[in-house]
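As noted in the main text, all predictions were made from sequence alone. Below is one such record, for Polyamine aminopropyltransferase.
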Amino acid sequence: MDLWLTEWQTPDLGLKTRVKKTLFAGQSDFQKVSVVDSEQFGRMLTLDGVFQTSVFDEYIYHEMIAHVPLYTHPNPKRVLVIGGGDGGSVREAVRHDSVESVEMVEIDGMVVDVCKQYLPEISAALIQNHPKLTLKIGDGIAHMRDAENRYDVIIVDCSDPIGPGEGLFTRGFFQDVHKALKADGLFVQQTESPFYHQSLIRKLHHDISGIFPITRLYLAQIPLYPGGTHSFTIGSKQYDPMTAPSRKPLFDTRYYNENIQKSAFVLPNMVRELLSGR
Ligand code: SAM
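Prediction:
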């Protein structure tokens, strides 16, 4: 009998994929964790029924959330990743020569363990105990409260603004991120779909631009996520991603390149209007 898995992207819209096999299903202290093998997306992680990442298209999200901020900063050395339990963001961050250390603070140890077992191509840097990497299992919000003038780049690779990730979408959190960054630091956060999460994007843009002098939204095409187009928002103290010099990666990438670094910030009018509050 056919088995299908549906993610309810809005109350009226579901993305349904045919499942070959359920590889893991468990309940952590924070959320329902599952890994299934699907026909379209290959192995994929879901948390509380929400699709998080898949071996089919994970490179798009992870290259774009890591390389855009890391190539905006001219010399990033100390990097923090909040969330990102599948390991994809840290896998990309450690590839930058200038980066000396990557700390990762993920609240849910079960996500890390399960991804190491079932999604090894995504969690490769965690499996290898990469020498640049330090993993802490704990709350990213609390970690940020204690940090000051410490990081060049912070990558907030969080799940949706419900459950343990809710506090990562608040003004208070962005103020702590500002405090945790060095004088020329910058951060990026995944900010959901410009089609289905417009009020969230508008609120985040408003909150971040009230704290950071430079706030920029960029887009990437990611089939797994609602609407197939995903947004990311950068808050920066000094460097503007739209005028950062183009630098060709010294390693292979499948989506990101020096032209994407520029074109990702070219926004359709409906997104511009969203950000200007019209
Ligand atoms: N690429 C994904 C997406 O956009 O759906 C995000 C993937 S990653 C698996 C998100 C991670 O953030 C989850 O593993 C979750 O446990 C973690 N997380 C949520 N709230 C957190 C918090 N307060 N501190 C640290 N990690 C958190």
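The chain has two domains: 3-53, 58-276. The domain at 58-276 is CATH 3.40.50.150 (Rossmann fold). These features were considered when defining construct boundaries for the mutagenesis experiments described in Section 2.9.
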